[in-house]
């Protein structure tokens, strides 16, 4: 009898051990599946809300933005986080470029950049320098949006550093700063300190983006998606020809120099001096081999100024034979005169690769230089806070004298 009881007890122990093993296997498998699902969802979010890349092209802005292209192109001098395409994308979503949006209404965002009056009091600036910061003036709205976004970038960095952003390891990444800055434009700089929004609990996704919803159903995720979609419309793919118009004659020195300049715009690596990506403006920066540290306001920044870029592209295009001096007024002594005008030039005799020198009214010293890209565009290092880029003629002073030269033919 005892032997039988012992056998029954042993059988029960083995049976329950088997059941426990099966349950453990099922639990582990379920946890792995959940983990994989979460990882897949996180990866899908990163895919859905990322950009395909490209170079901002002011000419891709919609027709209604045409009067404001110069102001969008000028964005970037206040802080490195805020770029022309970010401001353009936000304005596209906020007002579709309507400078008088919601005029006469109360308690809503006003103007092109949809500022609340209380926020405008702190961040509104006189963008066109007409003596008044006007919430319904497009130029002022664009400059003020840049000003506010720079403030938001710093606020977001502090939240990330302090560990206030759920699901993001401090201090976060530059992509976190960019995305959260955009979301904060719509949700406010302290959304990460709130627990509820319109009496609803706020939840945050894997990237710290809140689901706080306005009456129009706009969550943080949806807002970021819409801004990114707008930005993508303004980016010219980097794997295509970025010429303004007309073919480049690579048999000419100017044509080859332009091709070198377009490589810089695309962000191609430069051996020994640049790992790749947009090259910033740096006052007095650049030499025959590529970007360098500048001086004065360019100290501490590796990049090109306008004449440093010309030095580099013509040296490379000539296989080291053309060694231009550094400074636009000295470079103007080179080449063959093609044409000249005030505030513009007749392009009928110009070729992509010609060089344009800009001289302020009342002076005889060129203060800026750029290389012609065709289609009334140039490639240049524009000013501090920007990167080497393509700019339309409309970005340049209408009071300057524009002198076009052609550098060699060999």
Question: Tally the helices: what do you get?
Answer: 10
- Major sheet description: 6 strands, antiparallel
The CATH topology of the largest domain, please?
Lysozyme
Structural class: alpha+beta
Low-pLDDT sequence parts: 28-49
Query: What percent strand?
Result: 5-15%
The total count of strands amounts to 12
Radius of gyration: 28 Å
Widest β-sheet, arrangement of strands: 7-12-8-9-10-11
CATH architecture type of the largest domain: Orthogonal Bundle
Shape estimate? globular
Number of domains: 2
Distance between the termini: 110 Å
Mean pLDDT: 86
In helices, the fraction of residues equals: 25-40%
Order of helices and strands: HEHHHHHEEHEHEEHHEEEEEE
What is the CATH level 1 assignment of the largest domain?
Mainly Alpha
Describe this protein's structure.
37% of the residues lie in helices and 11% in strands. The protein contains 10 helices and 12 strands. The chain has a 6-stranded antiparallel β-sheet. Strands 1-4 form a two-stranded antiparallel sheet. The protein has a two-stranded antiparallel sheet with strand order 2-3. The radius of gyration is 28 Å and the shape is globular. The model is unreliable at 28-49 (pLDDT under 50).
């Amino acid at each position: 009898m005892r032997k039988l009881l012992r056998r029954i007890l042993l059988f029960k122990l083995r049976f329950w051990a088997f059941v426990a093993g099966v349950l453990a296997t099922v639990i582990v498998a379920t946890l792995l599946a959940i983990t994989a699902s979460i990882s897949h969802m996180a990866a899908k979010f990163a895919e859905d809300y990322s950009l395909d890349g490209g170079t901002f092209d002011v000419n891709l802005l919609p027709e209604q933005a045409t009067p404001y292209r110069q102001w969008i192109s000028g964005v970037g001098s206040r802080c490195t986080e805020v770029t022309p395409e970010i401001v353009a994308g936000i304005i596209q979503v906020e007002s579709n470029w309507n400078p008088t949006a919601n005029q006469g209404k109360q308690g809503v965002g006003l103007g092109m950049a949809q500022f609340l009056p209380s926020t405008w009091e702190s961040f509104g600036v006189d963008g066109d320098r007409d003596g008044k910061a006007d919430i319904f003036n497009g130029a002022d709205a664009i400059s003020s949006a840049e000003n506010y976004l720079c403030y938001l970038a710093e606020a977001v960095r502090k939240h990330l550093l302090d560990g206030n952003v759920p699901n993001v390891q401090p201090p976060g990444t530059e992509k976190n700063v960019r995305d959260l800055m955009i979301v904060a434009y719509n949700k406010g700089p302290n959304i990460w300190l709130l627990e509820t929004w319109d009496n609803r609990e706020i939840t945050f996704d894997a990237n710290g983006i809140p689901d706080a919803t306005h009456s129009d159903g706009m969550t943080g995720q949806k807002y970021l998606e819409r801004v990114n979609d707008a930005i993508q419309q303004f980016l010219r793919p980097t794997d295509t020809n970025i010429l303004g118009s007309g073919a480049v004659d690579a048999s000419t020195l100017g044509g080859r120099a332009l091709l070198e300049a377009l490589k810089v715009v695309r962000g191609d690596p430069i051996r020994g001096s640049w790992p790749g990506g947009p090259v910033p403006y740096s006052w007095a920066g650049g030499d025959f081999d590529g970007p360098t540290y500048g001086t004065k306001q360019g100290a501490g920044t590796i990049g090109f100024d306008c004449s440093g870029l010309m030095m580099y592209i013509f040296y490379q295009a000539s296989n080291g034979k053309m060694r231009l001096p550094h400074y636009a007024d000295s470079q103007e002594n080179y080449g063959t005169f093609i044409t000249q005008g005030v505030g513009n030039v007749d392009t009928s005799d110009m070729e992509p690769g010609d060089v344009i020198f800009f001289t302020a009214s009342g002076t005889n010293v060129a203060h800026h230089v750029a290389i012609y890209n065709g289609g009334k565009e140039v490639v240049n290092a524009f000013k501090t806070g920007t990167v080497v880029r393509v700019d339309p003629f409309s970005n340049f002073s209408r009071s300057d004298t524009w002198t076009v030269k052609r550098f060699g033919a060999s």
